[in-house]
Amino acid sequence: MKLLSKSPLKKNSLSSNNKNQLPLIPLRELVIFPYSVVPFFAGRPATIKAIEKAMEGDKNIFLAFQKNKNDNPTPDDLFPVGTVAHILQILKLPDGSLRVLVEGKSRADVLKVFEKEGMANVTYRPIPEPGAPTKVEASLMATVKNSFREHSKLVKKLPAEVVANIEKAESPDRLISLVMTNLKLPSDKKMEFITTRDNRVRMENLAVSLEMENEVITLKNNINGRVKKKMEKTQKEYFLNEQLKEIQKELGSEDNDPSGSKELEDKIMALDLPEEVETKALKELKRLSRLQPMSPESGVLRTYLEWITDLPWGIRTEDNKSLKAAAEILDKDHYDLKTAKERILDFIAVRQLKEHLKGPILCFAGPPGTGKTSLGRSVAKALNREFIRISLGGVRDEAEIRGHRKTYVGALPGKIIQSLKKAKTENPVFLLDEIDKMSSDFRGDPGAALLEVLDPEQNSTFVDHYLEVPFDLSKVMFITTANTLHNIPRPLLDRMEIIEIPGYTDFEKLEIASRFIIPKQLEENGIDKADITMDEEAILKIIRSYTMESGVRNLEREISQVIRKITRKSIEDYQSRGGRYVINTASLHQNQENYAVRQIDDGTDIDLSHVSIHVTAGMISEYLGKERFSESDLKSTTKSGMATGLAWTELGGRVLPVEVKLYEGAGKLILTGKLGDVMKESAQIALSFLRSNAEIFKIDPSFSKDRDIHIHVPEGAIPKDGPSAGITMTAALLSAIKNVPLKKGIAMTGEITLTDRLLPIGGLKEKVLAAHRNNLFTVLIPEKNKKDKEELPPEIQESMKFYFCSSVIDALEKLFPRGTFK
């Protein structure tokens, strides 16, 4: 140990004198306070020499404290304050080291460190102890003593004399030294009390440190108590289990398989498991048999093996092979939907020729209420398979699909494996509902996890994180549903066969209501035995005046309300006449509640078989109240600056009115109606197109130089975007400039370009149906969409007039009255 390679700690150190000069011993990770008796071990040669030198004189030494653990500390490695101590006892150990017992005398500043006689020496200056404590210090001393009493109760290992000495301490310095000696704190924290001069600050810090230490010990004691209690409970259970085993042995009824391993082994061997799965299961079973039944891992392994044995390995239902029977089931439950039905029948036909055909992965896309989910159930019925449905709406955790790894507490397989366990067959029809409503966050992307599930090339070896073995999903027929395809990730969309299920026409809704909805609601409301009919005009009134949708969900809700009203009125009349009254008219008031009962109060069954009611259009308002939707006035619009476009939404098609106003200004283009970027660009293109073709349309090329143009697309609160409103904006803008209204009753759709092209659009069927619902029977569409017209129902094609245009100029000539541009 060398201490001469650095300069002294203080430049203004005093000259050496024998009075304040002592041998120096550097201590690592040990702080010795005045008034305390503490042992330490000395092994470094220079330290042993310093101790021997002290023993030759008055046995006093200077204890300096290191800032680090260096074996050869320099003066810079020592704290500037140390402790003068007196050696009480020395014990030589067999390895040559010393055990030294010292008593701290006082704190002192290190003035100079130097080498003399081959050892370190120090010149020091004692730090004088202050006089009697002030009132504040006395108060702090009382607080510290109270806290230490509490500390001694918590620790329970402190000798009684230590507590007594601390109670007797009359000076702050003595109290601090005694408490810190018996307090388990890090050495750097203790050094703060050695180096700090102000006793008031030292006392405040001590009070805080002592209180914090008491809180930590209390917390540890509480935790240890709870752990000890649990351990005692576990030991008690173990002891009782061992006793139970001995009792059962004496009775001759010993259970030789407390872990249930034999039962699980029988299940595993009885199943037709793939080789990899069987190997994994038997390996885990072997681990289970070696564990104590009460151990936590035993429960985890037992649950895992139960999941393995409960899955339908090689178990499948026999498919229906009758095309006629399948077609009848599909037609019985759903009207139209020819494309989807034909795809299912194709699968059944091919399945008869190729038994091991992989299940198709279909996606039914269309507006709400068009029968996507119920069609999936009908497909399962037509194929004679089990039906499973899980909703993916709002799912944002990958573990919902793949499961959690079994190392996690409470881990389970994902929804795919859980559902197959419930189905008890490996070839069900599996409906993944609302696949477009999934999202992702920090827990992973469930859409990415579905890539393996919905890929025919990969799903034969699908591995759930919990199972850790592959399960064959290739025999499952996956069907997904979505309102819109835009929200589905492209890689996922690429793996699915898209089957569009567009909205229904009024006539299709009429057929659906007559064939399916009314009989179903009569049965659900318990009045199916009565003779209740509803004429076509009544159903059409509900469709046109009380619903505005592409599907039939709201239509079913309204028809259900009509039938509930009839049911209630029938019950009331029946009970009021003592069961002898036959009702032949129906008239209800708007404020009546929609409740219906099947029995009167005395428990007698009610017979409504003689009830005969025919609902007409004039009676609908009595059941449903005032009309919610009125016929559109778009057909009669004659104002200039107005045009009617068509838009597609995930809820179906809708009309999109566009309004344009010109007024004096500085040539600004103002766009309102919560328009997206694409629609804003369409407005700019329309403006540029009209300027560049001003001569053709007989308008002033500088028409916007001193006028502002305001384009508004109602309704203002609904976000809108897409390019297909380009022709509508162009027509409305030209109408406003020329102050000439468009022809009446025309709806339009199409994307425009600056070079006079009218580009094709998507969602034509939904858009045309929207026009038809709003009594707009003339539609202008791009020439390249002409082929899509064949997808429209025959009655729509017959009742609608179509303009097919390939250029913007041609389209505008058809939209404006003849001679407008001459």
Automatic annotation (TrEMBL):
Q: What molecular functions are annotated in GO for this chain?
A: ATP binding; ATP hydrolysis activity; ATP-dependent peptidase activity; sequence-specific DNA binding; serine-type endopeptidase activity
Give an example GO biological process: cellular response to heat
At the top of the EC hierarchy, this enzyme's class is hydrolase
Catalytic activity of the protein: Hydrolysis of proteins in presence of ATP
Q: Where does ATP bind?
A: G366, P367, P368, G369, T370, G371, K372, T373
Sorted alphabetically, which keywords does the UniProt record give?
Answer: ATP-binding, Cytoplasm, Hydrolase, Nucleotide-binding, Protease, Serine protease, Stress response
Give the EC number(s) under which this enzyme is classified. 3.4.21.53
Q: Which Pfam families match?
A: AAA, Lon_C, Lon_lid, LON_substr_bdg
- Active-site residues annotated for this sequence: S724, K767
One GO CC term, this protein: cytoplasm
Instruction: Outline the extent of the Lon proteolytic domain.
Output: 637-818
Where the record annotates domain Lon N-terminal, the positions are: 22-214
- Inducing or repressing factors: By heat shock.
Where the protein is mainly located, per its record? Answer: cytoplasm
Subcellular locations according to the entry: Cytoplasm
SMART domains xrefs = AAA, LON
* Similarity comment: family membership: Belongs to the peptidase S16 family.
The entry's function note states: ATP-dependent serine protease that mediates the selective degradation of mutant and abnormal proteins as well as certain short-lived regulatory proteins. Required for cellular homeostasis and for survival from DNA damage and developmental changes induced by stress. Degrades polypeptides processively to yield small peptide fragments that are 5 to 10 amino acids long. Binds to DNA in a double-stranded, site-specific manner.
Q: How does it assemble?
A: Homohexamer. Organized in a ring with a central cavity.
Name of the protein described by the UniProt record: Lon protease
Its source organism is Spirochaeta isovalerica
